[in-house]
Amino acid sequence: MSTRAALAVASECAPLVKTGGLADVVGALPAALAGQGWALRTLLPGYPAVMRALGKARPAAAFDDLLGTKARVLAGKAAGLDLLVLDAPALFERPGGPYLTQEGRDWPDNDRRFAALSLAAARIAVRGADGWRPELLHLHDWQAGLVPVYLRALGSRLPCLFSIHNIAFHGLTPASRLKALALPKAGFAIDGFEYYGQISALKAGLTGAQAIATVSPGYARELMTPAFGMGLEGVLQARAGDLHGILNGIDTEAWNPATDPAIAPFRGPAGKEENRARLCAEFGLERGTGPLAAVVSRLSGQKGLDLLLTALPGFLAQGGRLVLLGSGERALENAWLAAAAANPDRVSVRIGYDEALSHRIYAGADAVLVPSRFEPCGLTQLYALRYGALPVVARVGGLADTVIHANEAALSAGVATGIVHDTESVPALADALAQLCQLWQDKHAFRRLQRNAMKHPVGWDASAPRYGALYAALADASPAEPP
Ligand code: ADP
Questions:
Q1: For the chain, how many structural domains are there in total?
Q2: 330 neighbors 301 (Cβ within 8 angstroms)
Q3: Is it true that the peptide bond before 344 is cis, omega within 30 degrees of 0?
Q4: Closest ligand 1 atom to the C-alpha of 14?
Q5: In order along the chain (483 residues), what is the average pLDDT of each group of 10 residues?
Q6: Residue 254 within a domain
Q7: Which of 153, 169, 345, 462 is an S-S bond match for 286, by CB 3.0 to 4.6 Å?
């Protein structure tokens, strides 16, 4: 099979820089697509962590003026990824996170930072880097949304696939920034990137790309409704024929309970016992007379963890135990710390971000709770399935697409992999937790559910060919570029 070239553009990429599921997917797609005949290079901002990981790199392009700053593009490899890194110290060489200062506030120049990333991507695609040019661009979330605008301004019609990982983030900035971001005035229109008087980088991607992908079929349908479209449902309805819902997979090598160095490795549910005991000890929890549930999550309104706080006493009264690893909104962090303080042997909370601990949690927990209000795909329930922790999830987005609810039919057919409950409802969540407690009491039946979960395919085998076919259709349909 001959190999075709594509450029991915993203603001995060695991394992180099990660704040959520976006990074996991951007990090996993190159390997998934290699098997489909596509060689992906990934363009990332030169944050300190990325520059450190890049090590030996060669200059592949240089810009004397990239939105008012000097920048270069470095080419190199890190963590098995073929990277192009935008080395623009004025924009990316700073402490803090990719989007936030150390105090947790948005960087005030985020619009310029990611517009520069997008402009660099367009210049690379048109003029090449190191003599290399892609046939197609895969743009991830609003941080790469302006790429089609800059491409067209450079006279290119190279095809773009724009992926929505989370439509909650619009990349808005005032119209007065048009000139500073080198955006054409003509694009500031209802069918372009204008959004209620502001510039929206997300809308630029949605209107400018030849096709749009999102991370589950369920979320693709939901996005076209007012309840989930976050004001862009009309734009997505207009592009319904170009919108593709393709489920995310996970890296089944890095997440393999049989070989995972972070845990006591296991091949079946019985092998989880050791991990469960260790987890209880690590978190200072009683073994309990009910299931050990876990949450690994950003603490934000999206994730429904305020609903879980309300349902928690009933679950604890039935013998349940809970560990939570997460960070985010201060009010939620404090509410969860208070719940742990009130139930010291039964609830334990770790505020922070800790990848290795997340592995130990998935390995030791009986169940993983994901009561999200909306969830484009969700990865936590996929890790949970792989590690035999039953996912208890809201019936929304990708959660509903990946978990088979333990109703009577699924139980008797032997295919159930978890519990699915109505979204945004404390009574429904409480019922789901009660069902979890009841299922857990029958050890034999619970083990069967765990075995089903562990067998459920969660890798890229089904989705990689869909991306491959979409890439090929887009590239084949595009007019030839001038040399
Ligand atoms: P989102 O992208 O909305 O945050 P996903 O479920 O798609 O949600 O992906 C979340 C990813 O981040 C998963 O890999 C999960 O294990 C990881 N994660 C979230 N919070 C933490 C944390 N505090 N520590 C370690 N890993 C975390």
A1: 2
A2: no
A3: no
A4: 14
A5: 91 94 94 96 98 94 98 97 98 95 94 98 96 97 98 97 95 98 98 97 98 98 97 97 97 94 98 97 90 97 97 97 96 98 97 96 98 96 98 98 98 97 98 98 97 97 96 91 71
A6: no
A7: 345
